Amino acid sequence: MNVTCRKAKTEDIEQLHELIAHYAERGIMLPRSREALARQLASFVVAVEEASDRLVGCGSLCQLGSDLVEIRSLGVSEDFKGRGIGSRIVEILECEARSKQIPKLMALTYEVLFFKRNGFEVVEKEIFPEKVWRDCVHCKKQHCCDEIAVLKRLD
């Protein structure tokens, strides 16, 4: 099965919403409405199985400051895990951050080993006040967050 990674298109919104909702229902990812996805579509990369045109992975990049971007909504369909799709998406997002000359790439995750394999290191969440004040203040896990912060320096 061939899988291609590309920028998300309007036609991807429904499948993108379903994939993110699958993770959100399990408390692994923040939910995103279809409307929010439509507004943020340009920031998403998707992985699509060529034969069926099925969306099997996604990830987005969110600029938090002049020197920091976050990988968000990174997920791969259960039946496509372990095939390097997540790493390909991260690589594309990293290239995008480099092209914008942004020196730091971060994520909040439960999949620390995945990010370590992709060159990230574990850091304290508190070093990202941009993230805390932008998103964490609205999160229901704000005072009991169990996600791990990871960082990759691109400079």
Give an overview in words.
The structure is a single chain. The protein has 5 helices and 7 strands; from the N terminus they run βααβββαβαβαβ. It is α+β, with helices and mostly antiparallel strands. It has a 7-stranded mixed β-sheet. Helix 3 links the parallel strand 4 and strand 5. The relative contact order is 0.15.
What's the helix and strand layout?
Elements: E1 3-7, H1 13-25, H2 34-40, E2 44-49, E3 54-65, E4 68-76, H3 85-99, E5 104-109, H4 112-117, E6 121-123, H5 129-134, E7 148-153
Parallel strand pairs: 4-5
Antiparallel strand pairs: 1-2, 2-3, 3-4, 5-7, 6-7
Helix proportion of residues, in percent? 25-40%
SS field, number of helical segments:
5
Strand order of the largest sheet: 1-2-3-4-5-7-6
Q: Give the strand content.
A: 25-35%
SSE order, as H and E? Answer: EHHEEEHEHEHE
Question: What's the overall geometry?
Answer: globular
**Biggest beta-sheet profile:** 7 strands, mixed
End-to-end gap: 36 Å
Radius of gyration, Cα only, in angstroms? 15 Å
Number of strands: 7
Mean pLDDT: 90
Low-confidence stretches: none
Task: Output the structural class.
Answer: alpha+beta
Key traits:
155 residues; single chain; alpha+beta; 7 strands; globular; 7-stranded mixed beta sheet
